Amino acid sequence: MFKRIFYFIALNFLVVIMISIVLNILNVRPYLEANGMNYTSLLIFCLVWGMGGAFISLALSRKIAKWMMGVQLIDPHTRNPEEAKLLETVHALARASHLTVMPEVGLFRSNEPNAFATGPSRNRSLVAVSTGLLNRMNESEVKAVLGHEISHIVNGDMVTMILLQGVVNAFVMFLARVLAYFFSGMGRNRESSSGGSFILFTFLFEIVFMILGSLLICAYSRHREFRADAGGAHLAGRENMIGALKSLQRAQEVHDPRVDNPAMAAFKISHPSKHGLLRLFATHPPLGERIARLQKAV
């Protein structure tokens, strides 16, 4: 626990330092000036902070996953037959998907059946599988899950998600400050007494716009899960992919809070279903809906 907290604090400190350096290099001036708001400086400020943090997270995504999930990489020369089989299956699927550099393959200990893929690019990716998934699924179903994760890598889903998150972050920061500038009265009155109102309105608008932005991000995340299911069906067989999803459905009550990290939720193959309006904030479609989509596929 303390190790994960340390890594979290260290990562955020690194993000702040790196972005501060970039802002100094770009010579970005304060966006609030004596004669009003400098929209060019504000836009650059928001883009650097919004996109910068996202790209640093992407660059460190494999390391973050290993730290947070306790992933142990499989040695390419392992003599453990189960590990060797898992490694060869991932590499065979990667070759079938025309990947030129094989992903790293790892295991993390959890009774919750799950798997995820992450990494900053196709050539620097990681596929990790829980021990619970290997214990609950047969060989064909495991292959389908791995095909699903390889499809995420081939489709560039990690990069696209980070880009989308960065754009949303920048948009939220920019629009929140522009509206706060006018609603706080700073656009009409430059007295220092407006500063507190500006900060308050900025905070409130950021919350509202981040909620709206999350709807877009979650909608795309659900779309990419359908697409990865189709990829897994193509690589391992539709019935095997359906069987894997049904196996996940039967084990939905198995939940391991140790690996229930929000930062990794969007990259897992499944996640607990949400109901009502909360479904709009789900990163994964309901497993029943995913199964029905594959069953209807020609």
Brief summary of the model shown:
With about 300 residues, the protein is α+β, with helices and mostly antiparallel strands.
What does this structure look like?
This protein is α+β, with helices and mostly antiparallel strands. A hairpin with a 2-residue loop joins strand 1 and strand 2. It has one domain. It contains 11 helices and 6 strands. The protein is elongated, with a radius of gyration of 22 Å. Strands 3-4-6-5 form a 4-stranded mixed β-sheet, sandwiched between helices.
Strands, helices and their partners?
Elements: H1 2-25, E1 32-33, E2 36-37, H2 39-59, H3 61-69, E3 72-73, H4 81-96, E4 104-108, E5 115-121, E6 124-130, H5 131-136, H6 139-154, H7 157-183, H8 195-236, H9 238-250, H10 262-265, H11 287-296
Parallel strand pairs: 4-6
Antiparallel strand pairs: 1-2, 3-4, 5-6
Keywords:
single chain, two-stranded antiparallel sheet, elongated, 4-stranded mixed β-sheet, 11 helices, 298 residues, 8% strand
Assembly type of the chains comes to: single chain
Strand content: 5-15%
Report the principal-axis shape.
Answer: elongated
- Termini separation: 47 Å
Give a count of the beta strands, DSSP E runs of length 2 or more. 6
* Main beta-sheet strand count, sense and barrel state: 4 strands, mixed
* Strand neighbour order, sheet with most strands: 3-4-6-5
Radius of gyration over all CA atoms, rounded: 22 Å
Average predicted local confidence, pLDDT: 84
The count of helical stretches stands at: 11
How many distinct domains? 1
